[in-house]
């Protein structure tokens, strides 16, 4: 293989929309559609590497800027590819975390292409698999039975039903377990007053004795409320995730919390690690290859966490199969992955852009795809359909709060709320 064949001919960026149930969180409620962006990195020899990024106008613009920069670069030169994109974005995007979304998505596409060229799975490019399958947690959400009728559009029901109290959450957890065999559970909180969410966790603990549980209110609580919840749930939680805002607030809660604190909100870039470690603000880091710089940087992050005694879990957002494949490959390559990973996949998998078969959630785990690269294949008809849905919907950015206000006009986003 000559280096002229492994150069990038084109990076095709395709924004898509797919169906999402009315999942509640501390910002409001998920809209009927979620947005992602599919990357196809085409090499001179015709090899195509796939990537998937969260959607939204800013991320789309930045990926389009990256697409201009990478043409002609060698797909094996991922450090130079990331540096070129980073310096192209730097003048207009000062946040390293924000630039990270773009470099990460392109790195995954490069690694997929490299794996295809070499006939090896991506996990082999990350040092090899330390596990053949990766455990995921059932991601439970309070939710409505349907997206209500709005602006002439009829109500949209889904197969999961309503979950607005402890019984509803336990029923949802049972369904998740029946369908996918999950053995750990995460509840998205910050929706109802803390005592109601404490009751839901206690109901889950009773229904699934000995199975790890997590609660994540996305900073909906003050330091004082966080301490109260932590005390009430002593012995019931594997970890408490982002109860309150910021490194200083988390450190105050961590000071007397009976369980570890986790984050995907206050430590989201390399420069946040040192201040967080200095004040012992977190004990668990939810990594996410979509913004930490890609799969190799995530592997490096795992080593940094190991050095500082932080345990590792994995964050997710509404996503499809290219992301799930990338999450699975990197999680399989990390020796110190101490907790099962998050995934939204059961909520969105019906609209997946990849050809079925390569990824299956069984016994709460996803087997590491064995085919070359990420081991998944793009379904071009579905990609076209989901791109059309994106174009026709007019939706360009996620807005959980705005959507909630259209349904409940008095709704206010307040963080902390309690
Ligand atoms: O999908 O509503 C959601 C989640 O709240 C998501 O946006 C978060 O980024 O899952 C995430 C988390 O763990 O904070
Ligand atoms: Mg979280």
TrEMBL record:
It catalyses: D-glucarate = 5-dehydro-4-deoxy-D-glucarate + H2O. Pathway: Carbohydrate acid metabolism; D-glucarate degradation; 2,5-dioxopentanoate from D-glucarate: step 1/2. Residues 166-260 form the Mandelate racemase/muconate lactonizing enzyme C-terminal domain. Coiled coil: none annotated. Signal peptide: none annotated. It is an enzyme of class 4 (lyase). InterPro entries: DgoD-like, Enolase-like_C_sf, Enolase-like_N, Enolase_C-like, GlucD-like, Mandelate_racemase_C, Mandelate_racemase_N_dom. Its cofactor is Mg(2+). Keywords: Lyase, Magnesium, Metal-binding. It holds the Pfam family MR_MLE_N. Its EC number is 4.2.1.40. Belongs to the mandelate racemase/muconate lactonizing enzyme family. GlucD subfamily. This is glucarate dehydratase. It comes from Streptomyces graminofaciens.
């Amino acid at each position: 293989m000559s280096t002229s064949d492994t150069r990038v001919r084109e990076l095709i960026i395709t924004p898509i929309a797919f169906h999402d149930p009315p999942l509640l969180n501390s910002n409001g409620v998920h809209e009927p559609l979620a947005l992602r962006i599919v990357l196809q990195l085409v090499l001179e020899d015709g090899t195509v590497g796939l990537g998937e990024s969260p959607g939204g106008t800013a991320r789309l613009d930045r990926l389009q800027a990256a697409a201009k920069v990478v043409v002609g670069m060698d797909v094996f030169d991922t450090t130079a590819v990331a540096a070129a994109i980073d310096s192209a974005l730097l003048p207009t995007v000062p946040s390293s975390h924000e630039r990270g979304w773009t470099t990460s998505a392109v790195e995954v596409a490069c690694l997929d292409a490299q794996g295809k060229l070499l006939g090896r799975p991506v996990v082999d490019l990350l040092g090899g698999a330390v596990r053949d399958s990766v455990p995921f947690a059932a991601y439970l959400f309070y939710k409505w039975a349907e997206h209500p009728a709005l602006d002439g559009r009829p109500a949209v029901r889904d197969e999961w039903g309503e979950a607005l109290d402890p019984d509803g959450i336990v029923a949802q957890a049972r369904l998740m377990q029946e369908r996918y065999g999950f053995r750990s559970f995460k509840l998205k909180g910050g929706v109802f007053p803390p005592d109601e969410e404490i009751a839901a966790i206690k109901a889950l603990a009773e229904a699934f004795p000995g199975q790890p549980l997590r609660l994540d209110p996305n900073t909906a609580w003050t330091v004082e409320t966080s301490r109260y919840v932590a005390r009430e749930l002593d012995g019931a939680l594997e970890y408490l995730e982002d109860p309150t805002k910021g490194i200083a607030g988390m450190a105050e809660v961590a000071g007397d919390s009976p369980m570890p604190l986790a984050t995907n909100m206050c430590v989201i870039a390399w420069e946040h690690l040192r201040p967080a470690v200095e004040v012992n603000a977190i004990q668990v880091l939810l990594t996410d290859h979509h913004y930490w710089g890609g799969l190799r940087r995530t592997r490096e992050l795992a080593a940094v966490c190991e050095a500082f005694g932080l345990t590792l879990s994995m964050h997710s957002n509404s996503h499809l199969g290219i992301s799930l494949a990338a999450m699975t490959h990197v999680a399989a390559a990390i020796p110190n992955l101490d907790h099962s990973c998050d995934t939204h996949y059961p909520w969105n998998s019906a609209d997946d852009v990849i050809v079925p078969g390569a990824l299956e959630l069984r016994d709460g785990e996803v087997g590491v795809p064995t085919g070359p690269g990420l081991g998944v294949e793009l379904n071009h008809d579905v990609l076209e359909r989901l791109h059309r849905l994106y174009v026709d919907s007019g939706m360009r950015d996620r807005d959980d709060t705005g959507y909630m206000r259209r349904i409940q006009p008095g709704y206010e986003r307040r963080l902390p709320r309690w």
